[in-house]
Design brief:
By secondary structure, the chain is α/β, with parallel strands linked by helices. The protein has one domain (42-402): Purple Acid Phosphatase, chain A, domain 2 (4-Layer Sandwich), CATH 3.60.21. The protein is built from ten helices and 20 strands. The protein has helices at residues 3-24, 51-55, 73-83, 99-106, 141-145, 162-175, 187-191, 237-248, 273-286, 369-383, and strands spanning 38-46, 110-115, 118-119, 134-135, 150-152, 179-181, 183-184, 194-198, 202-210, 228-229, 255-262, 290-294, 302-305, 308-311, 316-318, 334-342, 349-360, 363-366, 388-392, 398-402. The strands form four sheets. Strands 1, 2, 5, 6, 15, 16, 17, 18, 19 and 20 form a ten-stranded mixed sheet that branches. A hairpin with a 5-residue loop joins β19 and β20 (398-402).
């Protein structure tokens, strides 16, 4: 064999081995290596009051001031009529159901939710509301059971039982060592973000704002001298500039900034163009990395804008609506556990895995195959406008892909 022929064969063998090695690896669009990434668990509204509170070990007084239902136990009875008995009283692990195993399996660096419940024994209900959610402070172990790190409080239910109820909510969270943002005794406290150090990786900073479109009243806005929520003024460039200043004052290289926004109505898939524009401005001009949007009772479409995740509506993760009829076509009983892998050096989304869930018997259950398919179809339909789509994985979870 001459040297030239040997050289060609040698090069061919080397190239063949290289190509085989590459093809043997499982390469997926938007699925890079996860070394060094920070994983965020996010969910939508968690409503632990009313019927949920009544099945726990330390229920509040069941009295309600709603137009049609005056006793919170009635919500338990409605759910039982729909899906069968609930074996209450239950411990704090019960309500999280299958979610606990998934959280332990994924082991995210940060666990954050929108807590849409006042935690208080206050009887000072907000009279114009009509709907008032509260959980007994004695049931705070429910948040600890799921190892929740941070909660967003800038929503339309945190002051359902008055300013005294807000104060007790904050005190109870502090005693349980659960961080919170979005409400406080003054505007300065309400505006103060949550800062979480992730050992060896960086920091996660969470700002929380509530918008009038979600039902947050102007009268609930915190001031320099009075308690309330961190209310979003509007979607203007001035508001973006104000937020930019606050982020610039605290964000360092390697930090991930999450903007938790309670915005929009309860029903409907349409994304308000004002929301899309505002989200883009927060990313372009204010250096926001992740937008955690909630308020809608059902899951909505998602966007990845310049490699930054925008969740427009997470849907309700846990509530007591199980026996309530109406709006059934939106499947508000279905939700997603969002596990986002983010690069702390850039803030870019590396991956988003989602676990489909269903609320049944006042707890979180793994969604059925049919319900998972329903969610995937809906997400692909609603994601077309944003160039996002989902893929069903072998373990019945969903992965997001984007253009």
């Amino acid at each position: 064999m001459n040297n030239k022929l040997f050289s060609y064969r040698f090069i061919g063998i080397v190239f063949g081995l290289f190509l085989a090695t590459v093809l043997s690896k499982k390469l997926t669009v938007n699925e890079p290596d996860n070394a060094g990434e920070i994983t965020l668990f996010m969910s939508g509204d968690v409503m632990l009051g009313r019927g949920i509170d009544q099945i726990l070990l330390h229920p509040s007084k069941p009295v309600l001031y709603e137009p049609y239902i005056r006793n919170a136990i009635e919500y338990v009875k409605l759910a039982e009529r729909r899906n069968g008995p609930i074996p209450y009283p239950v411990d704090c692990n019960y309500i999280w159901g299958d979610a606990l195993a998934m959280l332990n399996q994924k082991s995210p660096d940060v666990r954050m939710i929108n807590l849409e419940t006042s935690i208080t024994k206050s009887d000072d209900y907000w009279k114009w509301k009509g709907i008032n959610y509260r959980m007994s402070p004695d049931n705070i172990d429910c948040l600890s059971a799921a190892k929740i790190d941070a909660v967003s409080l800038a929503n339309n239910h945190v002051i359902d039982w008055g300013y005294s109820g807000l104060t007790e909510t904050i005190e109870t969270l502090d005693k349980a060592h659960i961080k919170h943002a979005g409400a406080g005794e003054t505007r300065q406290q309400a505006e103060t973000p949550v800062v979480m150090d992730i050992k060896g990786k960086g920091r996660v900073i969470v700002f929380s704002y509530g918008d009038v479109t979600s039902g947050v009243s102007q009268s609930w806005a915190a001031t320099d001298t009075s308690p309330g929520v961190n209310k979003l003024a509007d979607y203007s460039d001035n508001t973006v500039a104000t937020i930019k200043t606050k982020i610039k004052a605290i964000k360092h290289p390697g930090d991930i900034v999450v903007m938790s926004l309670h915005w929009g109505g309860n029903w409907g898939y349409e994304i308000d163009l004002a929301h899309t524009s505002f989200a883009h401005k927060l990313i372009d001009d204010a250096d926001v990395d992740v937008i955690h949007g909630h308020s809608s009772h059902h899951v909505k479409g998602m966007e990845v804008y310049k490699n930054k995740l925008i969740i427009y509506g997470c849907g309700d993760f846990l509530n007591d609506y199980e026996g309530i009829s109406g709006k059934d076509n939106f499947r508000a009983d279905l939700a997603l556990m969002y596990f986002a892998g983010v690069d702390p050096t850039t803030g870019n989304l590396l991956r988003l895995h989602m676990t489909p869930t269903q609320i049944k018997h006042f707890k979180i259950n793994t969604a059925s195959t049919a319900d998972t398919d329903w969610l995937a179809t809906m997400l692909n339909r609603e994601g077309q406008q944003f160039g996002t789509r989902v893929e069903l994985n072998a373990d019945s979870t969903l992965s997001l892909h984007w253009d």
